[in-house]
Design brief:
The protein is mainly α. Helices cover 77% and strands 0% of the residues. It folds into 2 domains: 44 residues, no CATH class; 103 residues. The protein starts with a helix and ends in a 7-residue tail after the last helix.
């Protein structure tokens, strides 16, 4: 297999400690930070660096951790608020279902009452007609007996 120039550069870049383009790394990091909208100082740390001797780095780490704690706290509040909102929606849906069932029950009760009233009205009309028929028969008999004619049968 023949090795291309790009492959050779790749192999060289994978060698540790290999060659390091310090200025290129710093430039790339600055561009990356600028793209993120973050302002930071970029500089190379020696192999024997210590956090106690790097107060600026300590402040940066502390600031990142403080922001993380604050964001986590906001996220927890947002989760709690979202959970309460879902519970409120569930309660509203349950209330709407209960109201819909009550409305259907009320409609059914009204229909039953109306049907009962219709049956009662029909019975009243039948009773009234029977009473009127009875009066008519009595009148008819009275007229017939006074005239000597045969009474009308209904």
């Amino acid at each position: 297999m023949t090795r291309t120039k790009d492959f050779e550069r790749y192999v060289e870049a994978c060698n540790y400690p290999g060659r390091l383009d310090i200025a290129g790394v710093e430039k790339s990091l600055q561009e990356y930070l600028a793209a993120l909208g973050v302002v930071r100082t970029v500089r190379r740390l020696c192999a024997d660096w210590d956090l106690a001797t790097e107060p600026a780095l300590f402040r940066s780490i502390d600031g990142v951790l403080a922001e993380f704690r604050q964001r986590a706290s906001r996220d927890a509040l947002a989760i709690r608020d979202a959970s309460a909102a879902v519970a409120a929606l569930d309660a509203g849906a349950a209330r709407a279902t209960r109201d819909a069932v009550a409305a259907v029950d009320a409609r059914a009760a009204r229909a039953a009452r109306d049907a009962s009233a219709a049956v009662a009205a029909g019975a009243a009309l039948d009773a009234s007609a029977a009473r009127d028929a009875g009066r008519t028969s009595a009148r008819s008999r009275a007229i017939a007996s006074s005239s000597g004619a045969e009474p009308i049968r209904t």
